[in-house]
Write a structure and sequence with these properties.
Structural class: mainly alpha
Strand content: under 5%
Distance between the termini: 55 Å
Radius of gyration: 26 Å
Order of helices and strands: HHHHHHHHHHH
Largest sheet: none
Number of helices: 11
Number of strands: 0
């Protein structure tokens, strides 16, 4: 009887503890939801205000006109073309190197102190402020390699910026592949390369692609490293076209051309006292946010679609 009473008393304590923990879970979920809603509502209000301020400039002329000293005639043509070309260089330099480095570190690199040192530094580089990359690029690409303040320099700078993001996302996507996939491939006689290319890479490219798009979205909105390397704030011309009508149909002069990008153009208009330029800046900011949200939305949609089609 004494033992039974003790059990009942402990049972009451256990039930009280479970009830208390459930109450704490509910309280934490409510606080988390409140913080999430506060952030979302604040972001939506700021975004709505940006759209309302820049609404008068939401027309095709704003995208097809060059910047001007008259706010009513100022457009974004050279800025969005410059952003597009810089993003092309960033993609071509960061993505192949980042994906290859992530595959090597995860599948081929020996597990020793040197590999651990590289992994730690790659993870730390992902959190370094972007202006540090700008200072590095100023010394390396502008002064040492003499690339000048060009599209090539800007693309390489942003490529360095997103390189750690691409490497880390590639490694995380590869780690998500079950070990049984590799073991089954080795079991039927596949070589190391066949396992990596035909199974590991093909099953993980959804996560890799997501990391690449998120990294490119970050590069699109970066301003500090581009200002540091000396991007121009007023350009009334376009770089030479990368494609020509004569063989070999490719022109690389645009890589050494001066440039501006949308965040720089927005910064330039915000620094002017005339309110009409601030309307242009608001329209540019809204456009950058919309493109960034579209890129992130595409990344989420691709990841969902690719994972849905994978049957382990």
């Amino acid at each position: 009887m004494e033992h039974k009473a003790s059990v009942l008393e402990n049972l009451a304590d256990v039930r009280a503890m479970i009830k208390r923990h459930k109450r704490n879970d509910t309280l934490f979920a409510a606080i988390g939801l409140l913080c999430l809603m506060f952030g979302l509502v604040t972001l939506m209000l700021l975004f709505w205000q940006l759209i309302a301020d820049g609404y008068p400039k939401f027309n095709i002329d704003f995208l097809t006109e060059f910047p001007s000293r008259r706010a009513g005639r100022a457009g974004l043509l050279s800025a969005w073309v410059g952003s597009l070309l810089v993003m092309a260089v960033t993609f071509l330099t960061a993505v192949p190197v980042g994906v290859a480095a992530g595959l090597y570190l995860e599948e081929y690199a020996p597990k020793n102190w040197f590999t651990d040192l590289i992994e730690i530094n790659v993870s730390n580089l992902a959190g370094v402020p972007s202006i540090i990359y700008g200072l590095l690029a100023l010394g390396l690409f502008v002064y040492m390699l003499d690339f000048g303040q060009s599209i090539l320099t800007a693309g390489l700078t942003l490529g360095l910026l997103i390189l750690p993001i691409v490497i880390v996302s590639t490694r995380e996507a590869i780690r998500a592949i079950p070990v049984s996939i590799r073991e089954a491939a080795y079991g039927v006689g596949a070589t190391k390369w066949q396992v990596v290319y035909d199974h590991v890479f093909k099953y993980s490219y959804g996560g890799i692609l997501t990391g690449i798009i998120i990294g490119m979205a970050r590069a699109l909105g970066e301003t500090a490293p581009i200002i540091t390397i000396g991007a121009l704030t007023f350009i009334a011309f376009l770089p030479p076209s990368p494609i020509t009508t004569e063989p070999p149909f490719l022109n690389f002069e645009w890589l050494s051309s001066g440039f501006t990008v949308m965040p720089i153009q927005m910064f330039n208009w915000l620094s002017r006292p005339d309110h009409a330029f601030h309307v242009n800046a608001a329209a540019t900011g809204a456009l950058i946010i919309i493109v960034t949200l579209l890129m992130n939305g595409t990344a989420i949609w691709l990841r969902y679609k690719i994972r849905k089609n994978i049957k382990w």
